Amino acid sequence: MEIIILQGENNLALKERLSKFVNEAKKRNWSIIRIEKEERVLDKILLSGLYDRGNLFIVEDYKSISKSDLKYLKEKVAKIDGVLVICSQGGNIPSSILKNFPKIKKIENFDYPKIVFQFLDSLYPSNSKNAILLFHQMLEREPEELIFHLVSSRLKDLYWVKTDPSTLPYPSWQVEKLERQASRFTQDNLRQLIEELALLDIEAKRSSLGLVYYLDLLLVKHLK
Fold first, then answer.
1. For the chain, what is the domain count?
2. Domain residue limits at 26
3. Which DSSP letter does residue 9 get?
4. What is the pLDDT of residues 105-148, one digit of tens each?
5. Looking at CB atoms within 10 Å, which of 26, 90, 169, 185 has the fewest?
């Protein structure tokens, strides 16, 4: 069995790549076995023995792979027919964990360019000029729908870290970084921004002006 890792923050690109594996497996008439977060990897692999054709195993979250799963894979990887695709959405698998995997055929990374994080980090009051400049630079390489999604996610994270930081599922350095950015807003500011962003999405779909126009207005209004 071949093991392939798909990892990175760009979930959209990662999912598109994963769909190509699925389509190829369908062409080959393979069994497609998805292993969800709460399911045991070993159980699913053992059940695949019921099939006499190739298998595409998809582990949706690498954290669901236990030590017993890794031990079994190391012992049996050469005897299992198919491909095991292990996903890590939202970031990379730590090297301390990767080293415990059996031989990995390929690691594919799906990361955003630096300008994405520069733009998201620029979202705070009194910084509209810089934020709009970075926004339009991003538009040269990323679709507006993706940018909207990223802005929405960042604002929700800022509100989350403002109201209940201990429950954020991020490493401490990332939480601290979000706290610094969130400290520039009041809780009401963030709530209003999130609400207006949701309305903006609806309005942009009804209007001929487009999403970029409304995002520009939002940045000018709230980050001036």
1. 2
2. 2-109
3. S
4. 999 999 888 999 999 999 999 999 999 999 999 999 888 888 99
5. 169
